[in-house]
Amino acid sequence: MAGRGVTIADVAARAGVAASTVSYVLSGKRSISPETADRVMAAVADLGYHPHAGARSLASRRAGVVAMMLPLRDGMHLPVLMQFASGAVTEARRHDQDVLLMTADEGPAGLARVAASAIVDGLILMDVEVRDPRVEALRRLGLPSVLIGFPADAEGLTCVDLDFEAAGRVCARYLVDRGCDDIALLGASEAVYARRTGFAERVREGFLHRAGPRAEVWPCPDDPASVQRTVKELLTSKPELAGIAVHNEPAVGHVMHALADAGKRVGEDFHVVVIGPDEVAERTHPQLPSVLVPAETLAETAVRHLMRKLDGLDVPESTLIEPQLTLR
Amino acid sequence: MAGRGVTIADVAARAGVAASTVSYVLSGKRSISPETADRVMAAVADLGYHPHAGARSLASRRAGVVAMMLPLRDGMHLPVLMQFASGAVTEARRHDQDVLLMTADEGPAGLARVAASAIVDGLILMDVEVRDPRVEALRRLGLPSVLIGFPADAEGLTCVDLDFEAAGRVCARYLVDRGCDDIALLGASEAVYARRTGFAERVREGFLHRAGPRAEVWPCPDDPASVQRTVKELLTSKPELAGIAVHNEPAVGHVMHALADAGKRVGEDFHVVVIGPDEVAERTHPQLPSVLVPAETLAETAVRHLMRKLDGLDVPESTLIEPQLTLR
DNA sequence: CTTGGTCATCGAAGCGCTTCGACAGAGCTC
DNA sequence: GAGCTCTGTCGAAGCGCTTCGATGACCAAG
């Protein structure tokens, strides 16, 4: 069936038209009579014709492929990345595009390569950091792109991310709604802030904004001992503390232990809410409510924005995805 | 710098040679004098030239891209998939190839599409099942490919997978070496067997082969209650039981609880070894030794085999990766 | 000195597609 | 019924590369 090397000429011959007519039927760029179009489509189906991607890209200067650069090396939470990749591919296919997978370690040179070789039409850059050398390269290359995350200078770029400030607000509200007056946000470790300033601050602002005057924010390292100590100090300094939001993935388990040690019964006389992946919140006992990074939604939004850019439409420079609180 | 649209003609002009000469310098397919080659390479560097992927693919009938079809939808352990993807991209880049990401839900039609459009030269199919419609499509299309996993009829295909029989042996040996006489393998739930018969049996055979006559294999569902019951029955039926291997990811945590309830102190008077991802074995207390699916190695091997096939070299039809036991 | 053989390079053809301009024929208008 | 404008279709050019055959330069052998 779908023979090797069915060309547009074969389709044209079978339908009794010129190759250009086949092209126009397929692209819809000129009006074609319904009868001709039907015959062409029938020939396409009969022969199992698919345009040669290289030829198409050469002639039309559109590859039909977008690149996705993921930080595969370290750091990011693997399942989240996978969800992201999955969402991006699915959405891209809806637009008849394929997705080329790149790793962040190819860096700016990798971007230059794909741009110059015209192997992709555009690019989605995952996990953008505040000072990211790739961003500068992107500007220079003029390759249409969408970033996940916000670099220091986002001027002229299209960025998508979770609305972390809203996430902070949502967590505060969750605790307040449960009658907690004294609450705290247990923040991330220094390492995280170092890489991506901004997003931690935004959580904190959202949290404080929505919480009462007796809310506090405590930074927190993530090794067991430090968490234990931090929680103990926190409880001592605020004896009325009734709820905390944890924005520090690796610390969540330790926090739960520390609270148990202090005699707090989470879910009853004490409330905890997590900002992080589902797995983290599900692994505790009891399971915790959480606000997660909505990887699929981010990916879909990013792809959709990129498609619009490729079509010459405009898109907002900055898009913030509304956080969702999952109760458990 | 890397201007938009630097062509081979630009490079040729700058180096004072014909375009074909540039091509030959770059591909090494004809001998070129060192002086000329140097001049050409200098021009390439100066102009930031990268060949147009589409043009190259059209002229040479080689896209320089391989597809990787992942089961993004469900089932498989996400982190493992991600490691796999990462390993594949890294290895592919070493061979100057890019990787196109596809999802398994495109099915046979997706394979037909990428084959006919010549967008990729070859394909890596992840998580192949015993009866997999994609395998048939693959045969029909004649697209060079490497499968991860073994379908029912692997004749003429190139397959790579973990050597599950060896994994079973390794686990048995671990327990035997620790002086356990009575040991058991706690197997997977029915659902897993239904999809991919074969690999569970192989673990079992390896286990029994290496273990003493008093070893047993117990199948086990993975909900908490069933695990609890299964473990209890197991301990009753074999009072001398001193170690078990668990080949059932979701059950591991429950097994540990059941053992604790029964008064067994794992790591001291009782031994447990896991066949599964690192995360599963690290999440328990104490952490357990485990044999993991070596995703990166599998990916690298698969890509390497595919490259050889694309170069017309031959590769073994079946490759089994040696399992590694990680002590903790 | 011819002849034959390498070696390094060139020019042209062609890969399969899109796109542009051209052009018949149909349907208007006046 | 002459002059329009539209519509639907065709043919040819050209996208940037690889590859094949040809060619000149040079050298060794006869």
TrEMBL record, chains A, B:
Domain HTH cro/C1-type: 4-43
Keyword Metal-binding part of the UniProt annotation: no
Keyword tags: DNA-binding, Transcription, Transcription regulation
Domain HTH lacI-type: 6-60
Native source species: Glycomyces niveus
Gene Ontology terms, MF aspect: DNA binding
Domain of life, source organism: Bacteria
Pfam families: LacI, Peripla_BP_3
UniProt cross-references to InterPro entries, sorted A to Z: Cro/C1-type_HTH, HTH_LacI, LacI/GalR-like_sensor, Lambda_DNA-bd_dom_sf, Peripla_BP_I
UniProt entry tagged with the keyword 4Fe-4S: no
Protein name stated in the entry: LacI family DNA-binding transcriptional regulator
Coiled coil: none
